[in-house]
Amino acid sequence: MTRTTAAIAACFTVSALLLAGCGDNNDSSAAPASATTSAAKAAGGETLDNVKAGTFVVSYRSAFPKLAEGKDDAKIRDILVETCKDIKAGKSEDEVVPNVVKRTKGAAGEASKEEAQAIYQMAKMLC
């Protein structure tokens, strides 16, 4: 139950951060996070902007602290980038979720199917 609640909270966090970032912000003085300084490359030469990559990293760390253990921001961002590639390639959720499980593997284990589905949903909103 706790994992499902965290996954739902992560999706709401992503939504809130995206909505907050939708305004016109001409102030470019804010420094981007170190791991998201350059845009993350996605499928077909497209890029994910730093805000989306940063939003994913923050949401992932917040919702899945055990999965984030030992991973730097770039490694977490790569989960988003690779998942977006799968989504943009037209793969179904049933095809992508097992890949998400593999991508989350680390010292603390890997995502459960439910966690991977929540990560998939977060990524889908950001791709």
Basic shape: globular
Largest sheet: 2 strands, antiparallel
User: How many separate domains?
Assistant: 1
Query: How far is the N terminus from the C terminus?
Result: 27 Å
Gyration radius over CA: 14 Å
Q: What string gives the helices and strands in order?
A: HEEHHHHH
Number of strands: 2
Beta-strand fraction estimate: under 5%
Q: Structural class per helix/strand content? A: mainly alpha
> Which residue ranges are poorly predicted, with pLDDT under 50 across at least 5 consecutive positions?
19-45
Quaternary organisation of the protein chains: single chain
Helix count, per DSSP? 6
Q: What strand line-up does the widest sheet have?
A: 1-2
Whole-number average pLDDT? 77
Helix content: 55-70%
What attributes characterize this protein structure?
mainly alpha; two-stranded antiparallel ribbon; 2 strands; single chain; globular; 127 residues
Description:
The structure is a single chain. 61% of the residues lie in helices and 3% in strands. The chain is mainly alpha-helical and 127 residues long. It has one domain (2-21, 39-126). It has a two-stranded antiparallel sheet. Strand 1 and strand 2 form a beta hairpin.
Tell me the layout of helices and strands.
Layout (H helix, E strand, L loop, with lengths): L1 H19 L19 E2 L5 E2 L1 H14 L1 H4 L4 H16 L4 H11 L9 H14 L1
Antiparallel strand pairs: 1-2
Helix pairs in contact: 1-2, 1-6, 2-4, 2-6, 4-5, 4-6, 5-6
